[in-house]
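User: Okay, second chain of the day. Same drill as before: sequence in, structure tokens out.
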Amino acid sequence: MNFPLYIAKRYLFSKSSNNAINIMTLIASGGVIIASAALFIVLSVFAGLKDYSLQFSSFVDPDLKLIPKEGKSFLFSADDLSKLSATPGIASYSKIIEERVILKTENKNLLATLKGVDSNYLKVTNIDSMVRQGNWISPNSNDVVSGSGISYNLSFGILDYLKPLSIYVPKPGKGQASSPKGYYNSAYVNNVGLFNINEELNNEYVYADINLAKSLLNYKENQLSALELKLLSDNDESEIRAVLETTFPNRFTIKNREQLNDALFKMLNTENLAIYLIFTLVIIIALFNVIGAIIMMILDKKKSLNTLFNLGTETKSIKAIFFLQGSLMTIVSGLIGVTIGLLIVFLQQSFDLVMLTPDLAYPVRLKFINVLIVLVTIFALGIIASRIASQRITKQLIQF
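Assistant: Same drill. Structure tokens below.
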């Protein structure tokens, strides 16, 4: 039997004759439990926030988006469409034309992004479910659906014929125009719906039929800004990307939903890392109590250690006893803390204990990787702390 481990377990689970040492040990163990539980809960909350943000972006962002590597548009022939349709794993695709435009109503102007979409667009995204007022656009019409922020800034509503809405796009090319209107292509449009997703999108986008966008931009029949794809649920995204890159070499930059929202996810990941480092510092502070508890235990057990030494136990083995005791303390405390964290996160998922709003529970998500991160952090720092404490043992200390 491993002698140092046997003694370490006896010291860990038995009470000391000195009540102050027992209290200090409980405080040290409790600090590790609370810190590990808090770290796991915070990591689960950030995982939930990430999923929550991705859930909102799923209404307007496709599974994959093909953007030209050069320029703002590209030509996509019938042969290219056949190749795309033949690509395995793609459930549907939509042709997209996207450009900055000027919206005008009465004496108000606003810069916005016009997104021309075809009839397949609703098979790729669920944007129509976010139309809070009115309806989605009709094919081959001058209908548009605007963000609620744009509607508020320009003071127009649904089918507001008293305030006609027009779209202006600068004409391509050089030279002088015979009149100010000659600089722009324009069209009167009917706002038939208002969507409400988030502040950024509400203030930015206007959806229209792709043919209207082509007319405003003087695009050719097969000229597009992007292609948006919906994938079959049981297919591997990386494999489909590889096939697309082989089928259309050096033509497109392929982005998934997270890459389309890279600024948001960089912010969330940075905050996640910052919180992890802060709570790791809290764990380090808690482990100072473990170091103190082990040192107090060493001083309390001096007579027993002297007896062990006289019986032939090496100083190295005595150091191993307290190193293992400290390691076991942090491992057991860490496991208890993570178990408590798992229970709290599970209860939040099941019973919505904490609410962001009266209708929205604080989002959390259980992830195995977070369990692993917390346990590795606790175990690694606990081993270091135990090593530091056990080095206090010397031959001179034992013999006195």
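The radius of gyration is 32 Å.

User: Thanks, on to the next one.
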